[in-house]
Amino acid sequence: MVSASQGLRVVVTGATGNVGTSLVRALSQDPEVDSVLGLARRLPDLTLPGVEWGRVDLSRPDSARTLASLLAGADAVVHLAWRFQPTHDPVVTWRSNVEGSLRVFDAVRTAGVPSLVHASSVGAYSPGPKREPGVDEQWPTHGWPDAAYCREKAYLERVLDTFELRHPQIRVARMRPGFLFKETAAPEQRRIFGGKYLPGVLLRPDLLPFVPDLEGLRFQVLHTDDAAEAYRLAVLGDVRGPFNLAADTVTDARALGELLDARVVRAPVPLVRGALATAWHARAVPASPHLFDAVLRLPVMDCARAREELGWRPRYSASEALNAFLHGVVSGEGEATAPLAGSRWS
């Protein structure tokens, strides 16, 4: 643990997104952190004590030079930057997510930054069991190859395996959270998965007639602020390796039905997938059927390591995280950053 007198300088990529906005706030309030530099493609209209902002587009090859100066003197780098779209052009996301991450990792090495905290995901895991207590961090991370998101997260796991072997002096922690929700990120998530033309009001619980009960529909969620707390602990601590992060209960169709006060109706996976595939190919929705396939195969995670080694406990339940999302998608509040802009900020 770093003493308060030393004062950490932390650089956060993707600082204006879902996790980034929660993390820079948490770091700015921590007495052990002297300064935070938040990096993003577009500078936000957001003022926080002790937080500065810098612009960098990781998809550009010349961003390597920019990173070299931005990371100079940093005590830790948290790499969150990620691009979800366009799902119809995986080359674009690969350039941002994979090639951009390689540039960040290389800049960490070149600048001599002692700690790197990387945003991996449950999506990096190979298909696995849906039952509890779930898989630990040793479960294979080969992802679901048809889904670009999973493929890219899994590839970076292999990159970091090599990075750690070649640079043991750099402490690397990998965070593997479930699906992350908070109220102000809901407008962005509605656009990412439902499309920018889907009105948030249509997602009101009283307008949903039923919840489809699909084979394999068991997944884990987490409030974004709880994920940010895990990242903060990883920055300040001396931990290495991967950490599963999720709320204490697993979400399934029955839990969603109770949350939405809707009937649960058994539905065949091929029918639902076919409808989604048709809509995706018609570019009516941005969420790909390949990601749908992956979600039905993601394993349930055991989060004991985060509790024991990070001292981390989620404050919010799974239902509270989902309720925050539902409230945010209807209200459209968002936040004063480009990724999270809602009706109030647009």
What does this structure look like?
The protein is an alpha/beta fold and 346 residues long. It has eleven helices and 13 strands. It has helices at residues 18-28, 63-70, 90-111, 148-166, 186-194, 224-236, 253-260, 269-281, 289-295, 304-310, 318-331, and strands at residues 8-13, 33-40, 51-55, 76-79, 115-119, 171-177, 179-181, 210-213, 218-219, 221-223, 241-245, 251-252, 263-266. The strands form four sheets. The protein has a seven-stranded parallel beta sheet with strand order 3-2-1-4-5-6-11, sandwiched between helices. It has a two-stranded parallel sheet with strand order 7-10. It has a two-stranded parallel ribbon with strand order 8-13. Helix 3 packs parallel to helix 4 and helix 5 (186-194) crosses helix 11. The longest helix is centred in the N-terminal third of the chain and has 22 residues, at 90-111.
Quick summary:
The chain is an alpha/beta fold and 346 residues long. It is built from eleven helices and 13 strands. The strands form four sheets. A seven-stranded parallel beta sheet has the order 3-2-1-4-5-6-11, with helices on both faces. Strands 7-10 form a two-stranded parallel ribbon. The chain has a two-stranded parallel ribbon with strand order 8-13.
